[in-house]
Amino acid sequence: MSSDIRDNVDRHRFELERNGQIAFATYERRGSDLVIRHVEAAIPLRGTGAAGELMKGVADIARSEGRKITPLCGYAFAWIRRHKEYSDLLN
């Protein structure tokens, strides 16, 4: 797991903190799938690459757990499609 990505199990989301602001991806672990429901970055983080960094961490976590990603969020789907090195994770 990326050392910058925190798994907030109680809130079912992965979090990345930058300068006191949070980018997060809500998830559900369902069998061998990691369902990404929503990705959001605090307004000050938008356009800084924080959401992309978060998604890279989420993809690395999914890979390390042997899971496929089911992206219900348009951003998560588009990110995986743009990063071909993670296309094998797309469910």
Q: How is this structure best described in words?
A:
The protein is of the alpha+beta class. The chain has one domain: Aminopeptidase. The protein contains 2 helices and 5 strands, in the order E-E-E-E-H-E-H. It has helices at 50-64, 74-82; strands at residues 5-8, 13-18, 21-30, 33-41, 68-71. A 5-stranded mixed sheet has the order 1-2-3-4-5. The chain is globular. The protein starts with a strand and ends in a 9-residue tail after the last helix. The relative contact order is 0.20. The model has no long low-confidence stretch (mean pLDDT 95). It comes from Microvirga lupini.
Question: How are the SSEs placed, and which strands pair?
Answer:
Blueprint: E1 5-8, E2 13-18, E3 21-30, E4 33-41, H1 50-64, E5 68-71, H2 74-82
Parallel strand pairs: 4-5
Antiparallel strand pairs: 1-2, 2-3, 3-4
What is the level-2 CATH architecture name?
3-Layer(aba) Sandwich
Biggest sheet layout: 5 strands, mixed
Task: Please state how the strands of the largest beta sheet are arranged side by side.
Answer: 1-2-3-4-5
**How would you spell out the order of helices and strands?**
EEEEHEH
* pLDDT < 50 runs, ≥5 residues: none
Q: Please, how many helices?
A: 2
Total tally of structural domains: 1
The backbone outline, from C-alpha atoms, is: globular
Q: Whole-Å distance between the termini? A: 20 Å
Give me the count of strands.
5
CATH-level-4 superfamily name: Gcn5-related N-acetyltransferase (GNAT)
The CATH topology turns out to be Aminopeptidase
| Name of the CATH first level | Alpha Beta
Structural class: alpha+beta
How large is the radius of gyration? 12 Å
Strand residue percentage: 35-45%
**Residues in helix, %:** 25-40%
Average of the residue pLDDT scores = 95
Pfam family, one: Acetyltransf_CG
Protein name: N-acetyltransferase domain-containing protein
Domain N-acetyltransferase: 6-91
InterPro entries: Acyl_CoA_acyltransferase (IPR016181), Gcn5-rel_NAT (IPR045057), GNAT_YJDJ (IPR031165)
